[in-house]
C-alpha cells in the first residue's frame, strides 16, 4: 500500500511538474516574442529612416543636377538669346526690332520651361519613358553620341519614391557612361518578361573590369538605392566591350 | 428508475457545459455569412466542437445503455470488462481527436512548416493501426502508448507553432494575447501535458485509487471545456473583431 501511495505522489508531482514546464515554456515564448517584436520594430524604424534618408539624398541630387542644367541653359541658351535680342533692339531697322521681339518671346518660353524644373513637381507628371526620352534627347543634342529608346510599354503610375529612385539611377548611369565610357551609342530598352519589368541601359563604350567594382564605388550606391525600393541593379561590363546595366523594377 | 439514471448521467456538469457550448457554437455558426461558413477557419473548429460533444454524450449514453455497450465490447473482443466505454474515448479523443487537433494546428503554421503536420498525421495513423493490429494495445482497453505518441506529436505541432510565433514577421507584428490561435495552442499544450501522466497511468490509478483517478480526470474535463470554449470563440470571432486580431497564417489545405 505504501508503494502505491508513493506512486500516486509521483503521478501527482509529475503532472504538476509537466504543467510547470509548459507554463514556463509558454511564458518564455511570450517573453521572447516581445523581445523580438521590439527588435523587429527597431529594425523596421531603421529601414524606414534609411529609406527616407535615401529619398531625401536622391531629391537633393536631382535638384542639384537640375540646377546645373538650368545654370548651363541660362548661360548657353537664354543668355545668348537675350544678347541677341539686345543687339536687335539696338538696331533702328523695324525688321530687326520685330526679330528682337521674337527672340525675346523665345527667351521667355525657355525661362518658363526652366522655371518648371526648379521644384520636383515634374517628377509626378512625367512618366519614366518621357524622362528617359528627354535625357537621351539632351545627350543626342550635345552631339556626344547616338541614342535610342525602345519601350514595350509606358511606365506609368509608379509611386513617387520608386520614380525618384529610378530617375536618379538612370540619370547617374547615363552620367557615368558619358563621363567614363566615351560611347558611340547609348541604348535604353524598357521591356517586360513574365511579370518582371526591366530597364536595360547599354553603351558600346570603353567598358571596365566589373570584378573590380568595390563597395566605395558609385555602382554600389546605385545597387543599394534600387534595393531600397525592392528592385535590383545588375551590371555587366568588360574592357572594350561596353557596359550593360539592368534595372529590375519592384513588383 | 431508468429515468433517474439517465438524469444522473446527463446532468453531469461537464456534459451540460459542453452541450451548452455546442448550442452557442451552432448559433454563431448559423449566423456566419455563407462565404465564411465554407471557410475552414470556421467550419473546422466547429467540426471539432460537434465531434467532441457527440462522442462525450455518446460516452454518457453508453453508461446508461449498458446492453449496447456490452454488445460493442463483445464485438471488439472485450468480454472481461463489459462496462468499459474506453473504446469510444480511444477512438474519439486519443485517435481522431489528436488528428483533428493536429490539422487545427496546421492552419496556424507558416506554409513551409505545414508539411511536417502531414507527416506527423501520416506516421500517427500508421502507428495507431500497427499497434492495434499487432494487439499491443487493444481498442477496448486504455491505450497509453497511443496517447503518448499522439501527445508528443501535439507537442511537436505546438513547438512548430511557437517557433513561428517568435520568428515570423507576421506573428511578430501581432499581439499574441489578441490571437485566438495563441490561446488555443496554449490550452491544447496544457491539456495534453497535464493529462499526460494521468492518461498514461489511467488504468493503474483506476484500480489502485479510483477517487484520485476521477479527481485527476477533472483536470481533463476543465481543460476540455476551456478548449471547446475557444473553438466556440473561433466560430464567433467575426463578431469579436475588437477583441481578437486576424490570424497571420491560415491559408493552405487541410
From TrEMBL, chain A:
User: Which enzyme class?
Assistant: transferase
The protein's UniProt keywords, in alphabetical order, are: 4Fe-4S, ATP-binding, Coiled coil, Cytoplasm, Iron, Iron-sulfur, Kinase, Membrane, Metal-binding, Nucleotide-binding, Phosphoprotein, Transferase, Transmembrane, Transmembrane helix, Two-component regulatory system
Reactions performed catalytically: ATP + protein L-histidine = ADP + protein N-phospho-L-histidine
List GO terms (cellular component aspect): cytoplasm; membrane
Alphabetical list of InterPro entries matching this protein: HATPase_C_sf, HATPase_dom, His_kinase_dom, Sensor_HK_TwoCompSys, Sig_transdc_His_kin-like_C, Sig_transdc_His_kin_sub3_dim/P
Which cofactors? [4Fe-4S] cluster
What CDD domains does the database record attribute to this sequence?
Answer: HATPase_UhpB-NarQ-NarX-like (cd16917)
Q: State where the protein is found.
A: Cytoplasm
Q: Which Pfam families match?
A: HATPase_c, HisKA_3
Bilayer-crossing regions: 6-32
Tell me a Gene Ontology molecular-function term this record carries. phosphorelay sensor kinase activity
The chain positions of domain Histidine kinase read: 69-251
Task: Please give the coiled-coil regions recorded for this protein.
Answer: 41-68
The EC number(s) given in the record are 2.7.13.3
Q: What function does this protein fulfil? A: Member of the two-component regulatory system NreB/NreC involved in the control of dissimilatory nitrate/nitrite reduction in response to oxygen. NreB functions as a direct oxygen sensor histidine kinase which is autophosphorylated, in the absence of oxygen, probably at the conserved histidine residue, and transfers its phosphate group probably to a conserved aspartate residue of NreC. NreB/NreC activates the expression of the nitrate (narGHJI) and nitrite (nir) reductase operons, as well as the putative nitrate transporter gene narT.
Name of the featured protein: Oxygen sensor histidine kinase NreB
Q: Which organism is it from?
A: Algoriphagus yeomjeoni
Automatic annotation (TrEMBL), chain B:
Keyword set includes Membrane:
yes
Q: Which domain of life is it from?
A: Bacteria
**Record's keyword terms, sorted:** Membrane, Transmembrane, Transmembrane helix
Q: Where would you find the membrane-spanning parts of this chain?
A: 12-30, 42-64, 84-104, 116-139, 145-166, 187-206, 212-236
* Coiled coil, from the record: none
In Swiss-Prot or TrEMBL terms, this protein is called: Histidine kinase N-terminal 7TM region domain-containing protein
